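PROTEIN DESIGN WORKSHEET
SECTION A - STRUCTURE
LENGTH: 1232
TOKENS:
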């Protein structure tokens, strides 16, 4: 202690503008980022923590609340009109957690926990008593779960007026400051859940965030996630498991949609330390918080609840030890997960870099077929990532061996199959490895033999009655020909993943009706609502679920909106009639046909009925207008609302009714009801002015509705009249919430009538008039939303330079310095106007390293657009088949996007269409990179669509062809690489080989479907295969002349009609081609093997180079072919005396002779055509046609160089083999 010196600093603050605020007789501080230094001397850094002794002298009638324990309060000796409060904080904390509030508070001690105090201004005492009744439950639950006492000696909750607080909540050590807007009395219902969760989260932050702090800025996600994890435990125990699971499901969906760039990487320096704390503000702060909680819940699922609880207890215990360690890092938590959680080291080593250190979530597209013979489910899965490739790979673990664009995620996802005999879990889906997977799941239930039933008279072939609403034949087969009721992927939400599962409609109905999990019900409703047409069975299932009082009320509300979405003139407004009938059965008096007086004792039923008018208001006719019945229904509810005798307030009920008026669309036939609706709204405004509602909710909803109506009727309503109507609500005497809502409404009107520049000018004027910090931040947030709308709709609306200068002046001024939320929103506004993302997370200026504005673009992401920038779009082929609406990833995708259809069909099962929309650029710039695997180049264009579909109507085998550029000779390849480097304008090592995956079906006779590829028109082959048969076809040795250079072409494919599977293709060190030949014994071959369709490289000038054949691969083919022949000879030894075998052998010989004759004719034709091409040099792009018989197991050493192949069906007769019609487009080589 000899070297310790005491430094005493006397200071005073003459004019405090930030950090500490004075409002009349109220003084309070806020914990804005790096603003503690503005009101007391300190080292305002996260790394500096110390204890505090605090003394505050205030007027006698005021109460001073600060961090730490209140040691005593004493009157001042020389002047008894002042009182001194003395606090001590023994736990070292950073300066940002020091808080002070001085006001004439009413103090409410907690009756259950002695050292908890609740304080508010005198006018809110009754609300405070009702609000904090539950609080001791959360406090005791946290202590019980963590097995430790509250770390601070006291805890105080302070509630200030909303216009005083900077944000809805502000934390300090042992103190939490809230807006009094969250308080509610015993008559309010809707605010209860949100307030309880907000107070519980603030208490959890005292444990993880204030008491235990992050070691580095990159560890903030961990403490934020642990606080959210504790809050979820509170929700589960005191608000119900359904509420907890539903909230987690919705949060996970939001994370998957937003986690597409490096801004959401939790431990990246670029997304944490370099953002200076702004990553916790706004929507990105919410997304990061939800993602943190989801990751910790995933760890809890992996190690078990008790092991995870022990980790948290150990973290808290060491923070309270004699030598306390109150910081926590991601590295330490990884160590705890291995030692205490008993997780395997390889799993943990991959888990944290992939989930925490990088961005992106797995996006799984699934479809299945049922194999009746094997009683097995065959599940097809395509795994993608929500993040763009560069963003996901830039922050991966440097120690990881796999550097591909998609390395997968550790762990196995469970598939839950609901069968007739019960429920079975199958943890069979790996989240790493191949992106395409085909899984086999054995069923446990078996179907009894069905007796043939003679169809009834007057019934249709599918068994449905003429008079009833028929269920499609596919639904009947799915329910009668398989023991499957429904299937779910990841039923326990063990992974943060976006899952698009496709199953028949009847299975979705089964899931909705029979599965008791709220997540399963919500998924089923979303899938049924997305159907192009909703049958009677679907509408009936949704109506039954809505009427089920035992179902969770939030999911019932989703069913109500799905019913409203299904209502149309085609089905006689069945959804609308069901909604109105349901509401009248609960709320109407059947004798007089009018609504009963309000009775809100049943809270779940109250929430459902409150949402019905809003759902009814969304119903639209064919002309996009609301039907007359919907408008009359809403008007009747507004007119006859009666709350007499109801102990609960109807303010939220009325606000929902008024907002439903704003959602209506008025046409010429129903505009007569508008005057009656406006009179009701005006009456409510006058009533709310005399007797203000809770937080001005009713007036706010009326203002919003009036603006919506004015915008919809902009042609007949003058802007000035609406301005005059809303302008009085901006008066300084009105309550804060109404004043801000009026300003936002006027900004909306200005934006829609006069453009974004006028709206921003109005925003700047209102910002200077607004004196509250929170009001300024809300106005800026609204202006930012308007800029985002403008940025996506009307890019021609320019911003004047004077407006930009004014915005920059605000950003640099003292007003924004005093309010970090305003400062951040102003920065985001300027970023959006510049076409950037609304975050400090920088997007590289080099276009070759990014995909433009990944976070604000509404168009789907695309890998090829990033890898091949600034090239000409590829023209579409002449004939592109029309895709089903369900299979189109995005109707607004770029026109240059090529569609590659990959159809996996099983002979006894469903049809699964996997559509990949790829944004190809110039084909001349695509090079063959031997280090890139084909499966890593699946684009992200299918982000928002269910592209895996099931269809039971067609049962057929599959021929799957993969297209991959072959290796060129060393000299030609070197020239190609140089050409590609010049065309792309960047180094060749950063390029990725472009590949395409094509499935070509082998359908029934006389059926053909066109499939579009990048530069091919490939139509389906007419072939009819027997069960379990195998087909091998090759087209080879057809020579073409091109300026004296002769080269061969080959198309080879192999199909097995029993099953289809995508095999992993190992890289061959001797060849740049990634895809290898797959010769597997025909007796053991279960899946269709994928053969190589080699395509020559394109020169930059449009020519094509000669593709060379690897001699190593040729020797491999010969060896495997010899083994195949040897095995066949052994198999045929026992059949030499069989007359049937001899007859088949004779027919086979005759067939081969015919094939040889046809091949000879074709070779003569090819020679003749080559001579013609020599003569006609002025026609370099001449087209040759060749009709070739399929020759079983015939291979050729030549490779195909061309990329315009067309196969056309031709009728086959007798035992003749199927035929390919090949259309080959050849180009001459440029001699230069």
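SECTION B - SEQUENCE
RESIDUE ASSIGNMENT:
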């Amino acid at each position: 202690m000899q070297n310790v010196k005491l430094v005493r600093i006397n200071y005073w603050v003459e004019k405090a503008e930030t950090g500490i605020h004075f409002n009349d007789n109220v003084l309070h501080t806020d914990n804005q980022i790096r603003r503690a230094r503005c009101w007391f001397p300190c080292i305002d850094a996260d790394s500096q923590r110390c204890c505090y002794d605090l003394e505050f002298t205030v007027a006698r009638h005021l109460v001073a609340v600060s961090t730490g324990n209140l040691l005593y309060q004493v009157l001042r000796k020389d002047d008894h009109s002042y009182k001194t409060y003395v606090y001590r904080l023994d736990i070292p904390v950073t300066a940002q957690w020091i808080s002070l509030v001085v006001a004439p508070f009413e103090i409410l001690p907690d009756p259950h926990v002695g050292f908890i105090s609740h304080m508010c201004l005198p006018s809110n005492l009754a609300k405070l008593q009702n609000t904090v009744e539950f609080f001791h439950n959360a406090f005791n639950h946290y202590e019980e779960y963590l097995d430790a006492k509250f770390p601070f000696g006291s805890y105080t909750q302070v509630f200030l007026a909303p216009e005083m607080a900077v944000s809805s909540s502000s934390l300090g050590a042992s103190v939490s400051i809230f807006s009094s807007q969250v308080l509610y009395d015993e008559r309010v219902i809707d605010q209860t859940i949100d307030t309880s969760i907000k107070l519980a989260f603030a208490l959890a932050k005292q444990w993880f965030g204030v008491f235990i702090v992050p070691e580095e800025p990159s560890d903030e996600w961990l403490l934020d996630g642990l606080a959210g994890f504790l809050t979820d435990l509170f929700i589960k125990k005191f608000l119900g498991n359904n509420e907890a699971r539903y909230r987690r499901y919705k949060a996970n969906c939001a994370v998957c949609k937003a986690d597409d760039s490096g801004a959401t990487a939790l431990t990246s320096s670029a997304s944490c330390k370099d953002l200076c704390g702004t990553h916790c503000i706004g929507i990105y702060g919410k997304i990061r918080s939800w993602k943190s909680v989801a990751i910790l819940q995933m760890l809890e699922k992996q190690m078990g609840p008790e092991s995870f609880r022990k980790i948290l207890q150990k973290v808290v215990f060491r923070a309270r030890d004699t030598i306390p360690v109150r910081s926590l890092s991601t590295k330490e938590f990884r160590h705890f997960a291995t030692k205490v959680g008993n997780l395997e080291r390889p799993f943990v080593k991959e888990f944290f870099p992939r989930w925490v250190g990088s961005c992106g979530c797995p996006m799984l597209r699934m479809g299945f077929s049922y194999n009746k013979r094997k009683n097995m489910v065959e599940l097809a899965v395509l795994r993608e990532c929500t993040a763009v490739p560069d963003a996901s790979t830039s922050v991966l673990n440097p120690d990881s061996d796999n550097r591909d664009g998609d390395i997968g995620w550790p762990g196995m996802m469970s598939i839950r199959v609901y069968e007739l005999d019960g429920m079975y879990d199958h943890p069979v889906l790996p989240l790493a490895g191949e992106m395409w997977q085909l899984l086999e799941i054995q069923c446990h239930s078996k179907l009894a033999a069905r007796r043939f039933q003679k169809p009834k008279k007057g019934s249709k072939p599918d068994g449905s009655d003429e008079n009833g609403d028929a269920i499609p034949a596919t639904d009947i087969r799915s329910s009668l020909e398989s023991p499957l009721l429904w299937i779910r992927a990841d039923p326990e939400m063990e992974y943060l993943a976006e899952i698009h599962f496709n199953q028949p409609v009847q299975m979705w109905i089964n899931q909705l009706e029979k599965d008791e999990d709220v997540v399963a019900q919500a998924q089923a409703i979303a899938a049924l609502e997305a159907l192009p047409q909703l049958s009677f069975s679907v509408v009936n299932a949704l109506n039954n679920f809505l009427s089920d009082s035992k179902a969770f009320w939030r999911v019932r509300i989703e069913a109500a909106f799905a019913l409203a979405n299904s209502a149309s003139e085609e089905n006689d407004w069945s959804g609308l009639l069901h909604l109105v009938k349901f509401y009248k059965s609960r709320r109407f008096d059947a004798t007089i046909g009018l609504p009963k007086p309000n009775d809100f004792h049943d809270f779940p039923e109250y929430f459902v009925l409150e949402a019905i008018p809003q759902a009814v208001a969304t119903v639209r006719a064919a002309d996009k207008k609301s039907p007359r019945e919907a408008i009359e229904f809403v008007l009747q509810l507004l007119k006859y609302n009666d709350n007499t005798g109801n102990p609960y307030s109807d303010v939220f009920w009325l606000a929902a009714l008024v907002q439903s008026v704003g959602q209506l669309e008025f046409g010429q036939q129903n505009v007569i009801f508008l005057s009656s609706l406006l009179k009701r709204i005006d009456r409510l405004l006058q009533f709310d002015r005399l007797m203000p509602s809770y937080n001005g909710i009713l007036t706010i909803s009326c203002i919003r509705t009036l603006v919506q109506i004015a915008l919809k009727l902009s042609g007949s309503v003058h802007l000035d009249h609406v301005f005059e109507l809303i302008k009085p609500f901006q008066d300084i005497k009105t309550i804060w919430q109404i004043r801000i809502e009026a300003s936002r409404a006027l900004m909306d009107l200005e934006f829609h009538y006069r453009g974004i520049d006028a709206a921003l000018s109005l925003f700047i004027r209102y910002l200077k008039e607004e004196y509250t910090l929170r009001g300024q931040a809300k106005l800026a947030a609204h202006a930012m939303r308007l800029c985002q709308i403008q940025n996506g709709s009307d890019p021609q609306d320019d911003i004047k330079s004077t407006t930009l200068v004014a915005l920059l002046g605000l950003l640099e001024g003292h007003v924004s310095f005093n309010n970090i939320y305003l400062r951040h929103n102003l920065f985001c506004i300027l970023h959006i106007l510049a076409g950037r993302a609304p975050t400090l997370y920088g997007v590289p200026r080099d276009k070759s390293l990014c995909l433009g504005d990944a976070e604000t673009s509404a168009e789907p992401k695309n890998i090829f657009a990033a890898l091949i920038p600034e090239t000409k779009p590829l023209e579409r082929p002449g004939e592109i088949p029309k895709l089903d609406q369900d299979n189109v990833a995005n109707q607004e995708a770029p026109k240059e996007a090529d569609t590659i259809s990959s159809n996996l069909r099983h002979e006894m099962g469903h049809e699964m269409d996997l559509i990949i929309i790829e944004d190809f650029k110039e084909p001349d710039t695509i090079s063959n990179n031997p280090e890139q695997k084909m499966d890593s180049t699946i684009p992200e264009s299918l982000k928002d669509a269910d592209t895996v579909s099931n269809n039971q109507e067609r049962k057929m085998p599959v021929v799957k062809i993969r297209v991959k550029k072959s290796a060129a000779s060393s000299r030609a390849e070197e020239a190609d690489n140089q050409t590609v480097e010049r065309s792309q304008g960047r180094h060749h090592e950063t390029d990725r080989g472009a590949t395409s995956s094509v499935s070509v079906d082998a359908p029934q006779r006389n059926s053909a479907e066109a499939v579009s590829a990048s530069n091919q028109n490939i139509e389906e082959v007419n072939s009819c295969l027997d069960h379990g048969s195998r087909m091998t076809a090759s087209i080879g040795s057809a020579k073409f002349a091109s300026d004296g250079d002769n080269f061969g072409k080959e198309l080879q494919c192999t199909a097995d009609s029993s099953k289809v599977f995508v095999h992993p293709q190992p890289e061959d060190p001797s060849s740049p081609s990634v895809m290898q030949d797959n010769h597997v014994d025909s007796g053991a071959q279960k899946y269709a093997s994928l053969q190589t369709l080699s395509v020559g490289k394109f020169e930059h000038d449009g020519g094509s180079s000669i593709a060379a054949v690897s001699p190593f691969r040729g020797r491999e083919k010969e060896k495997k072919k010899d083994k195949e022949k040897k095995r066949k000879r052994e198999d045929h030894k026992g059949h030499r005396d069989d007359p049937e075998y001899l007859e088949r052998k004779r027919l086979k010989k005759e067939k081969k002779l015919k094939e040889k004759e046809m091949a000879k004719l074709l070779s003569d034709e090819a020679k003749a055509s080559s001579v013609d091409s020599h003569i006609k040099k002025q026609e370099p792009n001449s087209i040759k046609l060749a009709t070739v018989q399929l020759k079983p197991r015939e291979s050729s050493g030549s490779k195909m160089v061309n990329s315009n192949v067309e196969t056309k069906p031709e009728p086959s007769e007798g035992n003749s083999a199927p035929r390919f019609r090949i259309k080959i487009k050849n180009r001459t080589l440029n001699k230069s």
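SECTION C - NOTES
The chain has 32 helices and 37 strands.
The CA atoms of residues 971 and 977 lie 10 Å apart.
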